[in-house]
Write a structure and sequence with these properties.
Length: 462
């Protein structure tokens, strides 16, 4: 071997040794990082996933700093670190993630990590009702084309996902939107539309029937809805809470107290998709677990369900005493009270909980102005017992139809209509004005960000 070649090998060997020392001293390196939305439209949380080049010790929560602050948990498994937030990150926002110590399990050397997360703008789907020919004197509009539209909140422009003669309701999960299409005999077609391609397939039923309140479970494997079988007669002709399994393409019904079939047209799912609440045909409030499918628990009577708390420990609903909160662990009920100086408990209409915060909800309340001799409906937000009026609507000019919140708790979606409208349709099986619009209201300021020309706003995440 020549001296020159030997010297070259010595230099290369020295460089490799120095590189090993450098890597060892620097500690583990980050291979990749991403924000994981769990692949679920209605997920209650998001998470930040960090993939390392080598196995690391468990990361301490105290070593993680996130700005703006948000509650989170951390788990470490091999080369992966998962920071899971207790609610969805705000859309169109920036978060700084700093981890001060990531320790190699092999060498015990450590390194730090810093990254800025920029969350995308919120995309939504909604139903746009398009009247083609409005017939004078007709109670129902027959000449119309409905569309499922998609748009980005705060941005101009929208696109059509699907069109049909009439669309009553929609539910979304990932890249699938379920639409209910009303038929002349009072039944519905349940159609599953692929948002990207526009292709669709219909769910097969043994008998035609009316379908209402479709909802996907958190993992998207089940689609629940209220089903009224057209073939049933007399006392048997009632709505049954039914679930369609998208994997096996089979259906099953839930049990009521006593083991009978749960007959209900009024039901909701918890944010994690595992707990359901329903009002049965006798007006009884029942709560059950989809993972166990045993008989549900009975909690007295209720007239309207408005939502679970983020941790699924509380249920909000309306009964004869107005908006009520139920502690599911104890069965204790308590009326929802407002602390506004001019408030009257008797005038509360309903309360809708935020997704991400435990003691937070929207409340509708009626107010009479003696000075103007007019009634107003108020949209009130309550966060940890601090109440503030966000917006007022003059009764007689505007009707509030429904209130929901965005998946990140940033916006309230308030469905409103012109009270003087003469056009009506079958929206949700009730006589409602057909020109329903949705005001997108910033929760923090009460400002109307934009008005969507449609209703049934649903979040969309691929």
């Amino acid at each position: 071997m020549s001296i020159k070649y030997r010297n070259t090998l010595i230099v290369l060997g020295t460089m490799i040794a120095m590189l090993v020392i450098l890597v060892t001293q620097a500690g583990p390196r980050v291979r990749s990082s991403r924000v994981d939305l769990l692949g679920v439209v209605n997920a209650t949380s998001s998470r930040f996933v960090l993939n390392m080049t080598e196995q690391i010790d468990a990361v301490n929560v105290a070593d993680i700093h996130i700005s703006p602050q948000i509650t989170f948990t951390v788990t470490t498994s091999g080369k992966t670190v998962i920071i899971e937030f207790d609610k969805p990150l705000y859309s169109s926002n920036s978060y700084k993630v700093y981890i001060s110590r990531l320790t190699s399990s092999r060498t015990k050397k450590h390194t730090s990590f810093e990254r800025e997360i920029k969350t995308p703008a919120l995309e939504v789907l909604y139903i746009k009702r398009q009247i083609i020919n409005s017939k004078a004197g007709a109670f129902y509009d027959t000449d119309q084309i409905d569309a499922v539209r998609m748009k980005t909140i705060g941005m101009v422009g929208e696109k059509t996902i699907y069109e049909d003669k009439k669309i009553d309701e929609i539910a979304t999960y990932g890249d699938t939107v379920a639409v209910t299409l009303p038929q002349d005999d009072g039944s519905h077609i349940l159609r599953l539309v692929d948002i990207s391609s526009g292709k669709f397939r219909d769910v097969d039923f043994l008998h035609r029937g009316a379908i209402k309140a479709p909802k996907f479970t958190q993992d998207g494997s089940l689609l629940g809805f209220s089903y009224l079988d057209n073939s049933k007669k007399g006392d048997d002709r009632v709505s049954v809470l039914t679930f369609y399994d998208l994997r096996s393409k089979t259906m099953f019904s839930l049990k009521d107290i006593g083991g009978s079939v749960l007959r209900s047209a009024n039901w909701i799912l918890s944010n994690d998709g595992g707990i359901y609440a329903a009002i049965n045909e006798k007006g009884g409030l029942v709560v059950g677990n989809l993972n166990e499918l045993d008989e549900p628990q009975y909690y007295g009577n209720a007239s309207e369900l408005t939502g679970f708390s983020a941790d699924t420990l509380q249920l909000y609903f309306n009964d004869t005493d107005g908006p009520t909160l139920l502690e599911l662990s104890t069965g204790k009920k308590q009326p929802i009270r407002l602390q506004l100086t001019d408030s009257s408990d008797a005038l509360l209409i309903n309360s809708v909980p935020f997704y991400g915060t435990k003691n937070a909800f929207y409340t509708r309340r009626a107010r009479y102005s003696y000075l103007e001799s007019k009634y107003y409906e108020q949209l009130i937000t309550t966060i940890d017992k601090n109440d503030s009026i966000k917006k007022e609507y003059l009764v007689g000019e505007t009707n509030i139809i429904n209130i929901t919140s965005s998946i990140d708790d940033k916006f309230a979606y308030v469905e409103v209509s012109d009270a003087n409208s003469a056009q009506y349709d079958n929206y949700l099986g009730a006589r409602r004005p057909s020109n329903v619009k949705t005001e997108v209201i910033d929760i923090s300021t009460g400002a109307v960000i934009e008005t969507i020309d449609g209703f049934r706003v649903e979040a969309y995440r691929k």
